[in-house]
Design goal:
The structure is a single chain. The chain has 168 residues and is mainly beta. 0% of the residues lie in helices and 51% in strands.
């Protein structure tokens, strides 16, 4: 269910506090040739969606939505893809930006959704520095995963939605 997350309608809600570590920090990333996801760089937060004209994983366009960012403060985000109507909508704290797109969301069906990094297996891991207090993923129907960062064991972070979509 989480594999083709970005090819369908998806809504990711997240609350967090980020510390300034002087580096680029990913809150989450759907890894690809060009990542889709959210990251902090300098004093901005950037929401990106990778698009492909031929419905493959080779992105030929990226939509960036950018907001000013303050460290050491509570923030909330909603990252939404409406693939049917081709709308990319972001809510950062109380500000909303929405853009209509052409093409298709890049097909990253067989790659993980990373939380707190762009990809832990590459040289520039872009680890998040701070605390994520909420991370909830929904589709058109229901909550798909609701990660409980207060309930972490050595190998996984439990999904309190009851769907078994634990984070590892």
């Amino acid at each position: 269910m989480l594999g083709n997350l970005f090819q369908n309608n998806v809504k990711i809600e997240c609350e967090f506090i980020a510390n300034n570590n002087g580096k680029t920090q990913y809150i989450f990333s759907k890894q690809g040739i060009i990542n889709s996801g959210v990251y902090i760089k300098d004093n901005v937060i950037i929401f990106e969606l990778a698009l492909s004209s031929d419905n493959t994983n080779f992105a030929d366009e990226i939509i960036p939505l950018i907001f000013p960012f303050e460290y050491d403060k509570n923030h909330s985000i909603i990252y939404q893809i409406d693939s049917e109507n081709k709308i990319f909508k972001i809510t950062f704290d109380d500000e909303i930006k929405e853009i209509k797109f052409d093409g298709n969301v890049s097909d990253y069906s067989n790659v993980p959704l990373w939380i707190g990094t762009s990809n832990p297996f590459v040289q520039n891991k872009n680890y998040f520095s701070g605390f994520i207090s909420k991370f909830k993923i929904s589709d058109n129907e229901d909550v798909v995963s609701d990660i409980d960062f207060t309930n972490v064991n050595r190998f996984k972070i439990l999904d309190k939605s009851g769907n078994g979509n634990h984070a590892y």
